[in-house]
Write a structure and sequence with these properties.
Distance between the termini: 45 Å
Low-confidence stretches: none
Radius of gyration: 40 Å
Number of strands: 32
Strand content: 15-25%
Number of helices: 32
Helix content: 40-55%
Structural class: alpha/beta
């Protein structure tokens, strides 16, 4: 745009109260005198101001031509001088400059008070592309602060003006030997203007050194998470101004895509300031630092502190578990989740040990107590080692001996009671009043109803409980019962016991054991899967699959193959396949997790794609596993009898003898009275050749013979379990302080019908800019008492918020990916810079 166009635009833009324009063209260098003389603009009076025509101009402007436009050229006179007769006119008129700076200011539509700023930063504005980029970022800049942020955003190649992101990029360069980005920025942005941004937004007035600025940010942030008295040696790095802006800035960084750079910088600062050594030296308690998340090392201290407390005999389970819950919402949790999860389950083992007495008066009571109470210890043990094995972990290594001691003590007590009452069965494998594996089809499955039966090899009861809880996420009804397996608790016999009647007139299957230990059903061998398939599918209403074969079929193939079948059996073998291999037995708990996911997805597929409304999940047997290697004391000499099958956990024989340290049961309960099974008491194994003694089954411990019977039923009316909702309790929708307490009510306790939820909460302004911290809420409370499901969350808003704005509280449900909004008036009377 040329000078004439600029002047025409200036004269045409009249305010509603103006009927004319008076413009003073200031040209101190006399560079545009000739252009002034030649320029012609319609309806404009041109006058050159000199030492002798002040009165003339005043008379023309204010008396003779009171309604006409004037362009007054000024060269060497200070219009602000007291000697200026035209001062009153000048003050209500407009100013025009035609030098390069003025043209830039006109192009950016900047007010005259920004002229000195543009002059200081002239290098930036020499490049047309930078000016165009600046214009594309924002239509109007009203202050030096806004302009500097815009310029920095251009130089850091941002597509929008974003002070936080620009500063993050600049600070991240401190990880290199030289900060090339800052050097490049300071070539085009005045150094004082750059540092003034850090002063205005973050309150930083220290040395112009980015490393010191980083100390200032991180230590100030930390000072608001812990007692500042703990930071006595670092007081010089703590701000007394703009603290909330610092808190929000680092919170957003931790929640941004640049979080990995945050981790690197925090590690650098931690090392340079010797923070971890300092905090270990002052012996602060984990209670004092439980909310700290600026630096990673606090988690190390907390974990070690809890360990030391346990070692010293101090057990405050509620306090320990609460600290772990707090850390779960912390930035560094994912770096330590295996440790925290492992620690959580170790604490649950200790709590179980402290609160639970292992005692029962008879085997029936023992069975009942295991399915309701005692199985939890097996669950906690499995979960501990699942986390231990997921990643080499020095913290969890410290627990191993303690975990083994607690678990071994539990199993010894349980087995001692269980063995005592097993002996009273006098060789007859029968516990009254419990579900029995061989009666699955006759007592639990209707012959008329289309049913899928999933037999998951080695899915012991406690895994079934976890699976049943997960299945409640699906629409439908889920129940779990315990069932007593056959003995020896092995696949061949368990599978035989679980077979549906193949005779269409309903005659019960006849199970026979041959002299070589093989299983015969109705006179047919069932050694291989193919044998079982041939036998079962002789009944046209039955179809059997291997899980690995079933999942390769298309939906069309699945529907076609199963459409006329009443009973569909799916054999799933994930746990036993891993556990029964000496090379992989230590991965058996990982296999359990995989099995749970596979079975969940299988049920989902059967319901959604095949419209199956009745599904049974059970197992052929359970298992026992211990992480530590067995000693010779854990092994028993094998019996000197005819051994039809010799296994680490049992001997099948046709001889009936008396023997110590074993249970003897007749197989007459499955109509094989000529056979006897000898099972070592407790967790003992028979001494036999080979490896693989950690994972075993075949015996009669609760973990081996108590198996799950899960029933999933669905109808069109069924609703799946919902993620629990939270409700904002704050009635007054007004924020008057940079720190605000939000109060939520978790509407329902966690149960079969309601699952835990995770929410993100933050404030936005009317333009959608986040103006507060982003805080996370884990809604996972299971207390039935409403008053104990109140959740309080402190949230910090930026210091730079205008005194009164309209804001929006956002409650973002991370599970449902939906947001609730609440309008708020934000009227902060005393921002923290005061």
């Amino acid at each position: 745009m040329n000078i004439k166009n600029l002047l025409e635009e200036k004269f045409s833009n009249k305010n509603y109260y103006e009927n004319r324009k008076i413009v003073f063209w200031i040209d101190k260098k006399n560079s545009f005198k000739e252009e002034f003389e030649t320029i012609e603009i319609e309806n404009i009076n041109k006058i050159v101001l000199n030492q002798n025509n002040f009165f003339t101009i005043k008379y023309l402007v204010e008396i003779e031509k009171l309604e006409e436009n004037f362009l007054i050229y000024v060269n060497d006179f200070d219009l602000h001088s007291k000697e200026n007769w035209l001062l009153d006119i000048f003050l209500y008129s407009e100013i025009f400059y035609a030098d390069k700076i003025s043209l830039i200011m006109n192009e950016l539509n900047l007010s005259s008070n920004l002229r000195s700023f543009v002059e200081r930063n002239e290098k930036f504005f020499k490049n047309k592309n930078r000016i165009l980029s600046l214009i594309s970022l924002k239509e109007e800049y009203s202050s030096e602060f806004e302009l500097t942020i815009g310029m920095i955003s251009v130089l850091t190649k941002l597509k929008v003006i974003d002070l936080e992101k620009a500063i993050r990029k600049i600070l991240s360069e401190e990880l290199n030997d030289e900060n090339k980005l800052l050097e490049d920025i300071l070539k085009f942005v005045n150094k004082d203007d750059f540092w003034n941004i850090l002063k205005e937004h973050f309150g930083y007035a220290g040395e112009k050194d980015l490393n010191l600025f980083l100390y200032y940010l991180f230590i100030t942030d930390l000072s608001k998470q812990i007692n500042p008295a703990l930071l006595k040696e670092y007081e010089s790095h703590i701000s007394s101004k703009k603290i909330n802006n610092i808190i929000v800035f680092l919170n957003h960084w931790r929640n941004s895509e640049d979080r990995e750079l945050y981790k690197e910088l925090s590690a650098k600062i931690q090392k340079e300031l010797n923070l971890d050594e300092y905090f270990r030296k002052i012996n602060c308690s984990f209670d004092e630092i439980k909310n700290a998340e600026t630096f990673r090392f606090f988690d190390e201290i907390i974990i070690n502190e809890i360990l030391d407390s346990i070692d010293s005999g101090y057990y405050d389970f509620e306090k320990f578990l609460n600290v772990i819950k707090i850390r779960k919402e912390n930035f560094w949790y994912n770096e330590f989740w295996e440790t925290y999860e492992g620690l959580y389950y170790y604490l649950k083992m200790l709590e179980f040990e402290k609160k639970t007495e292992v005692f029962f008066d008879n085997i029936e009571e023992g069975f009942e107590k295991y399915k309701k109470i005692y199985y939890e210890m097996d669950f906690y043990y499995r979960k501990f080692y699942l986390n231990f094995n997921s990643k080499p972990n020095s913290h969890l290594n410290k627990f191993i001996e303690k975990v083994e001691n607690v678990y071994n003590k539990f199993t010894e007590n349980l087995n001692e009671m269980w063995d005592k009452h097993l002996s009273k069965l006098n060789g007859n494998w029968d516990i009254s009043g419990v579900n029995k594996q061989q009666e699955l089809f006759s007592k639990h499955i209707s012959s008329e109803k289309k049913t899928v039966v999933i037999i998951s090899d080695a899915l012991r009861y406690e895994i079934g409980v976890e699976l049943s809880k997960k299945l409640k996420e699906l629409p439908g009804r889920v129940t779990i019962e315990a069932m007593l397996s056959v003995i020896p608790s092995i696949t061949s016999l368990g599978m035989a016991a679980l077979m549906p009647n193949v005779n269409e007139v309903g005659i019960k299957n006849e199970i026979k054991i041959k002299d070589d230990g093989s299983i015969i059903i109705n006179g047919k061998r069932t050694s291989s899967f193919e044998d079982k398939t041939k036998l079962l599918e002789s009944n046209k209403q039955i179809k059997i699959f291997r899980y690995k074969d079933y999942k390769t079929l298309s939906q069309k193939e699945k529907r076609e193959i199963t459409k006329d079948k009443k009973k569909i059996l799916i054999y799933h073998n994930t746990v036993d396949e891993v556990g029964d291999n000496a090379k992989s037995e230590d991965d058996v708990f990982k296999a359990c997790e995989k099995a749970i996911d596979e079975l969940y997805n299988l049920v989902k597929d059967l319901k959604n794609n095949l419209s199956i409304s009745h599904i049974i999940i059970t197992s052929d047997h359970g298992f026992i596993y211990q992480f530590s290697n067995l000693s010779e004391l854990d092994k028993l000499e094998k019996l000197n009898i005819n051994q039809i099958i010799l296994n680490k956990r049992f001997i099948l024989s046709d001889e009936n003898i008396k023997a110590e340290y074993v249970h003897k049961f007749s197989l007459s309960y499955i109509n094989n009275p000529i056979f006897w099974v000898y099972i070592p008491k407790g967790n003992l194994r028979f001494k036999i050749q080979g490896s693989g003694f950690k994972y075993v089954h075949g015996g009669a411990t609760p973990q081996e013979v108590i198996i799950p019977l899960i029933e999933y039923s669905a109808s069109r009316k069924d609703e799946k379990a919902k993620h629990v909702e939270i409700e904002l309790l704050n009635q007054e929708r007004k924020v008057t302080n940079n720190t605000y307490i939000l109060k939520f009510f978790q509407k329902n306790p966690i149960s079969n019908k309601f699952l835990p939820s995770v929410y993100k909460v933050y404030f936005e302004d009317k333009d959608g800019n986040i103006i507060s911290e982003i805080v996370e809420i884990n809604a996972d409370l299971d207390d039935l008492d409403n008053s104990k499901r109140i959740i309080l969350k402190k949230i910090t808003l930026k210091s730079s918020i205008s005194r009164r704005i309209n804001g929006v509280l956002i409650i973002e449900d991370k599970n449902k990916k939906i947001k609730k909004t609440y309008n708020y008036e934000i009227d902060i009377a005393f921002p923290d810079e005061f």
